[in-house]
């Protein structure tokens, strides 16, 4: 009897496991192939991105397999989903079924305590801490400082020049703004070292995570370690400044160091500060630089849009005494200029897509997505859907005159739901101020007729967009 009882204790869990496995096997995996082990479809996607055919590659895949399909990306089995329902599913997950997860390469380079990796209460805690500095009420106080960086940049790198290359200059500008406003890092050799390692770090963000010498991924990992070391030194200095009575809102780092929990201890750990500093550097530097560059390209190609933007910005300039800085009310008047930016973000979203990780077996649209798999979504799939945005290939800023007419989770350049980018307002402010000064101080035309771009992984215009420029100050002096 004891033997039978002991045997049943062993047998019942085994039977339960077999039944569960049998039920799971009855559910179908999505159509598609996982491809070659480790490499999978990663190279195909990366090549398509650099050839500016990634959207076509994804669209053809969707036509072949439908709205749900499996593949392998960056070393992990992945399910690609798209459409309004898919976006809502991704962005409204409560963290029990899906966790926010980037590719292994991004995780290893940026760290596992950044917002891209955190879920549940940890995500909410760190996000709220970042939002305390990045919310509009707080950013209003930094418009003048941001404007000063933009004025200095244009004086140093644009005035007196006949030709400039836009993208690298915009990257320099956005990095300087981040260093000044978010990290309190002033101009000089230290900032130059930061940007050097930072650019190397970005190079392998989307790559196959094989850490071999002389690969992009290996160089990025080494640069990431150096950026983290510099960030630790900066945090130590800021902590000492706070002890001496420095303002807790002089920059993002001092703000995060000052936030206390119920136990009076720091609410955000040092690793979380470092990893999120690196995330904001990566997200805020490249995306804003690319957006401003694409606006410059559009204004050179579309006379109607250019005239409308110029008219709006000239009205704001002429309404103020000479030399007076912009304020929050001025930015609120730049409605058309921001709609132009929004339409560019619709047609050429800087962020191609993103990943989530399943925390349990999930049934989606009748298919099984096993625990531990990645879910991959692509921004352009709803942005270029003619049922959502009529004539999607036509550039039309008036689409955004009535935000209520745009279905929720269809326009997602900054994400959506609880995962919407906390730096949205920051990016909007720096974009609008930069465009204000560009169109009121310069005229320009493109130096090359090629209007193509490649993704690496963000969109990069041909030759980084060289343009011929003429200063309006020079034109005024001649007249």
What is the CATH domain class? Mainly Alpha
> Looking at this structure, what is the CATH superfamily?
Cytochrome P450
Largest sheet: 5 strands, mixed
Tell me roughly what share of residues is in helical segments. 40-55%
Strand order of the biggest β-sheet: 1-2-8-5-3
Domains (count): 1
Shape: globular
Number of H/I helices = 19
Q: Please, what is the average pLDDT?
A: 86
Count of DSSP strands: 12
**Beta-strand content bin:** 5-15%
State the distance separating the first and last CA atoms: 109 Å
The stretches of 5 or more residues where confidence is low (pLDDT under 50) are 3-12
The Rg value, from CA coordinates, equals: 25 Å
Per the CATH scheme, the topology name is Cytochrome p450
Structural class: alpha+beta
User: What's the CATH architecture name?
Assistant: Orthogonal Bundle
Keywords: Heme, Iron, Membrane, Metal-binding, Monooxygenase, Oxidoreductase, Signal, Transmembrane, Transmembrane helix
Membrane topology: Single-pass membrane protein
Subcellular location: Membrane
Organism: Penstemon davidsonii
């Amino acid at each position: 009897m004891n033997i039978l009882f002991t045997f049943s204790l062993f047998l019942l869990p085994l039977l339960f496991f077999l039944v569960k496995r049998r039920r799971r096997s009855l559910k179908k995996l999505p159509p598609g192939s996982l491809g070659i082990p480790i490499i999978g479809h990663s190279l195909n996607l990366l090549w398509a991105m650099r050839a500016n055919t990634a959207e076509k590659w994804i669209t053809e895949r969707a036509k072949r397999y439908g709205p749900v399909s499996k593949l392998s990306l960056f070393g992990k089995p992945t399910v690609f989903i798209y459409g309004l329902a898919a976006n809502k599913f991704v962005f409204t997950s409560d963290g029990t079924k899906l966790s926010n997860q980037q590719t292994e390469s991004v995780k290893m380079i940026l760290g596992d305590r950044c917002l891209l990796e955190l879920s549940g209460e940890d995500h909410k805690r760190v996000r709220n801490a970042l939002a305390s500095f990045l919310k509009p009420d707080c950013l209003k106080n930094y418009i003048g400082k941001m404007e000063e960086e933009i004025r200095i940049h244009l004086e140093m790198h644009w005035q007196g020049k006949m030709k400039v290359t836009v993208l690298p200059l915009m990257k320099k500008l956005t990095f300087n703004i981040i260093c000044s406003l978010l990290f309190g890092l002033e101009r000089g050799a230290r900032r130059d070292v930061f940007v050097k390692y930072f650019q190397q770090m970005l190079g392998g963000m989307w790559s196959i995570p094989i850490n071999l010498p002389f690969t992009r991924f290996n160089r990025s990992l080494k640069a990431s370690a150096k950026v983290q070391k510099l960030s630790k030194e900066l945090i130590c200095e800021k902590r000492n400044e706070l002890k001496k009575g420095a303002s807790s809102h002089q920059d993002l780092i001092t703000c995060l160091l000052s936030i206390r929990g119920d136990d009076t201890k720091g609410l955000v750990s040092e690793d979380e500060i470092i990893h999120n500093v690196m995330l904001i550097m990566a997200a805020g530097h490249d995306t804003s630089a690319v957006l401003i560059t694409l606006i410059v390209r559009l204004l050179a190609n579309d006379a109607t849009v250019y005239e409308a933007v110029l008219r709006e910005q000239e009205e704001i300039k002429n309404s103020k005494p000479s030399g007076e800085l912009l304020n929050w009310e001025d930015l609120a008047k730049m409605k058309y200029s921001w709609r132009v930016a929004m339409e560019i973000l619709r047609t050429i979203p800087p962020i191609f897509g993103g990943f989530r990780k399943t925390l349990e077996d999930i049934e989606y649209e009748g298919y099984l997505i096993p625990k531990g798999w990645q879910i991959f979504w692509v921004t352009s799939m709803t942005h270029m859907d003619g049922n959502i945005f009529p004539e999607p290939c036509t550039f039309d800023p008036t689409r955004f005159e009535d935000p209520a007419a745009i279905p929720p989770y269809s326009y997602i350049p900054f994400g959506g739901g609880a995962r919407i980018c906390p730096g949205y307002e920051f990016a909007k402010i720096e974009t609008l101020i930069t465009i204000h000064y560009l169109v009121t101080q310069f005229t320009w035309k493109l130096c090359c007729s090629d209007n193509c771009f490649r993704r690496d992984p963000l969109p990069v215009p041909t030759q980084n967009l060289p343009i011929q420029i003429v200063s309006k100050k020079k034109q005024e002096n001649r007249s």
